Amino acid sequence: MWQFFAMMALVLGGAAYGLWDQNLKLQKNIASQRVAIEQQEAAFKELQVQTKRQNEANTAMQSKNKKIELEMSRYLDIFARHNLTKLATAKPGLIEKRANNATKKVFESIENDSRDVDSLDDGVQLVPETNSTGAGDNNSNETGENRDSTAGVTEGN
Predict the structure, then answer these.
(1) How far is CA 110 from CA 7, 31, 96, 102, 107, in A?
(2) What is the mean pLDDT of the chain?
(3) What is the band of 20 on the pLDDT scale with cuts at 50, 70, 90?
(4) Cα(16)–Cα(24) distance, rounded to whole angstroms?
């Protein structure tokens, strides 16, 4: 009889150990799931903030666009009401002076923008790409001996 109780004690002890081990694994899973949920909640909150900012920026851009469209329609209305060909024929100095001044402003604006863009690449030198095999894809982002590179270029200086 004592053998029966000893066997039962071993079986129950093994079952208790199995349940205890499974409980530890489940507790670890729960902890990792809590961390994942916290990260997802933080990411969701950040997405909500970004969405709110985008909506505000979109609203501001729509408002600016509406103002520009109103200004454009006002100018188009002015041009529709006036016969510029007739006016230029009657008073060439008036139209020519205004057209020249407006063209000058546009060209100056383009020159200023071009100067700003041109100054962005000052000091950057590119080594021309050569393809020694004569075949293959030259559109790689990899840098190597035969690829364009701006790092460490001291040749010709």
Answers:
(1) 94, 60, 21, 13, 5
(2) 81
(3) very high
(4) 12
